Each structure stands twice: as structure tokens, then as C-alpha cells.
């Protein structure tokens, strides 16, 4: 796991993806690579009409349509190359040494699966108008499939000055605390540790353990144990404390990690006006 991989697609969220990836690359001192995957099913660059032999007068029309699709696909690939060049230039101007790029004509998930071993952090952009009933079909599929930290960005970049960890005491979120404590990504930033649950010795002990680990790592840590509806408590706390980034465990069976399954996924990520870092 070595690289920060930023997926860009030329939409209005791509500049923010680029800038958050640059921020992470510089903080982690990790190589930065920009990835553009052109969906082969939407943008073909070659056509095969062998299955249409015998269609008579329709064959000429089918051939013309296929040639138009092929041309559209090739233009999209060329546009993608220009976009990758612009992203690398932007990264260099912001201080990244020798960013690289990769363009694939195929399937995003398959491409990421092939690259997974070298991914230290994956950065994806959130498209507000494409969320539907889920995070967004591609993002949700990636999150469910990949086993790497994934940063889902908002359309506007704001350098993180504070972070919030949604903690529930489970093995996954305990591992998340250890990852945050040992990573240079958030070093020097105030860290808000929030647990939603009843006030009891077990929860308080778990929270104190997490705070102790972060304190020992040099964080300015603020801890809170609050009751209520998990999603509302997290969102209200984030807003009230002007948090710049939310950190959560991606999947599991605990009350917080169940937030990222089904329709609640949409609410958490869509309603977050800040980037969300999902840990596995």
C-alpha cells in the first residue's frame, strides 16, 4: 500500500478530488496517481457488426451508428488524457513531486481491484445529483468491494483543520483509532471523538481508551458520549463544532457502521457537507 489514488472524471467535483488527493499525498508523503476510467460499455472505441450480417438495408445504418459511437469513445479518451494532464499540472503547482496518471478503457471496479495492493488511500468525488437512493451506484459498489481507506469528497475543497471520529468501541472502530493515531494524515489537527450510546462504565471505558491512544499520539482530543439517534447526533455535532472531515468505519454490525448500509448510507454521506473518510 503506497499510493494515493484519485479518481477523476471531468465533472465539477474533479477539482476538489484533485485538491484533497494532493493534501493527502503531501501529508502522507505518498506518491500521487490520478486515475481516469472510461466505461467501455458507454464509450466503445471499436465495433463488431458480425452478428448483424443479413439485416439488409439496416446494416448501413448500424455501421454508421457504430462508427459514431467509436468516434465518440475516442474523443472521450482524448479528453480524459487532457484532463489527467491538467490534474498533474495542478498537483505540481501545489507541491507534489512527479504525480503520475493512468487511463483505462474498461470498468472502474475491475481496474481498482487490480490496483488494490498499491492503494494507500482512494479518493472519490461525491456527485450530489447522482445519489438517488444510495451513495451513488459506483461509489457504493467500490466502498462495499474495496478493502482500503476511501475518502469521499464534497464538490468544494477546504483544507481540513479539524476531524471527527464516529466511535462505537467495536474492533473495526478501535482499529480505526489506531490507524488515525499512527498516521501522519491528521497529525496536528484537533480530533473530536464522538460515541453515541448510553452513559455506562463500558462505553466510558471504551471512549477513554480511544482518547488515551490519541492523546499519547499527540492529538488535541475532545471526547463526547451522547445519547440519541446516531445519525442526527453525529450530524448535529459536526455542524455545531465546524468539523472539516468525518471519519467512520465502513461496514459491520455495530450501530454506527450500520449507517453505511441501505438507505441510511445516503443520508449520512449526502447530508455531510464535509468529506467522509471510510476506514476498513
Can you describe this structure?
This protein is α/β, with parallel strands linked by helices and 280 residues long. Helix content is 41%, strand content 20%. The chain has a 10-stranded mixed β-sheet, sandwiched between helices. Helix 8 links the parallel strand 9 and strand 10. Helix 3 runs parallel beside helix 4 and helix 5 runs parallel beside helix 6. It is elongated, with a radius of gyration of 22 Å. About 7% of the residues have low confidence.
Give me the Rg, rounded.
Answer: 22 Å
pLDDT below 50 for ≥5 consecutive residues: which ranges? Answer: 49-53, 130-135, 257-265
**Main beta sheet strand tally, sense and closure:** 10 strands, mixed
The main sheet orders its strands as 3-2-1-4-5-10-9-6-7-8
Q: Would you give the CATH topology of the largest domain?
A: Rossmann fold
Helical/strand content category: alpha/beta
CATH architecture of the largest domain: 3-Layer(aba) Sandwich
The CATH class label of the largest domain is Alpha Beta
How much helix, percentage-wise, in residues?
A: 40-55%
Instruction: Please tell me the overall pLDDT.
Output: 82
Count of individual beta strands: 10
Percent strand equals 15-25%
Number of domains: 2
Q: How many H/I helices?
A: 8
Compact description:
Helices cover 41% and strands 20% of the residues.
Give the topology:
Layout: E1 3-7, H1 14-28, E2 32-39, H2 58-93, E3 100-106, H3 108-115, E4 119-125, H4 137-145, E5 150-153, E6 163-167, H5 171-182, E7 191-196, H6 201-216, E8 221-226, H7 230-240, E9 245-249, H8 263-271, E10 276-279
Parallel strand pairs: 1-2, 1-4, 2-3, 4-5, 6-7, 6-9, 7-8, 9-10
Antiparallel strand pairs: 5-10
Helix pairs in contact: 3-4, 5-6
Amino acid at each position: 500500500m503506497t499510493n494515493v489514488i484519485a479518481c477523476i472524471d471531468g465533472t465539477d467535483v474533479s477539482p476538489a478530488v484533485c485538491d484533497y488527493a494532493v493534501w493527502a499525498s503531501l501529508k502522507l508523503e505518498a506518491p500521487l496517481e490520478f486515475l481516469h476510467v472510461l466505461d467501455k460499455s458507454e464509450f466503445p472505441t471499436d465495433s463488431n457488426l458480425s452478428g448483424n450480417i443479413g439485416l439488409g438495408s439496416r446494416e448501413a445504418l448500424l455501421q454508421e451508428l457504430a462508427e459514431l459511437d467509436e468516434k465518440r469513445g475516442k474523443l472521450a479518451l482524448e479528453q480524459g488524457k487532457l484532463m489527467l494532464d491538467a490534474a498533474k499540472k495542478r498537483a505540481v503547482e501545489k507541491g507534489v513531486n512527479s504525480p503520475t496518471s493512468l487511463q483505462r478503457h474498461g470498468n472502474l471496479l475491475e481496474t481498482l481491484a487490480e490496483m488494490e495492493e498499491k492503494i494507500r488511500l482512494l479518493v472519490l468525488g461525491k456527485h450530489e445529483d447522482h445519489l438517488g437512493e444510495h451513495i451513488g451506484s459506483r461509489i457504493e459498489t467500490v466502498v462495499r468491494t474495496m478493502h482500503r481507506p476511501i475518502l469521499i469528497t464534497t464538490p468544494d475543497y477546504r483544507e481540513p483543520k479539524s476531524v471527527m471520529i464516529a466511535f462505537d468501541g467495536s474492533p473495526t472502530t478501535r482499529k480505526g483509532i489506531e490507524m488515525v493515531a499512527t498516521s501522519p494524515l491528521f497529525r496536528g489537527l484537533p480530533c473530536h471523538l464522538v460515541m453515541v450510546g448510553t452513559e455506562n462504565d463500558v462505553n466510558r471505558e471504551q471512549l477513554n481508551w480511544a482518547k488515551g491512544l490519541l492523546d499519547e499520539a499527540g492529538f488535541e482530543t475532545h471526547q463526547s458520549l451522547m445519547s440519541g439517534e446516531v445519525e442526527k447526533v453525529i450530524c448535529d455535532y459536526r455542524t455545531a463544532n465546524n468539523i472539516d472531515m468525518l471519519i467512520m468505519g465502513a461496514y459491520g454490525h455495530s450501530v454506527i457502521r450500520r449507517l453505511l448500509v441501505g438507505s441510511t448510507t445516503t443520508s449520512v454521506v449526502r447530508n455531510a457537507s464535509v468529506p467522509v473518510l471510510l476506514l476498513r
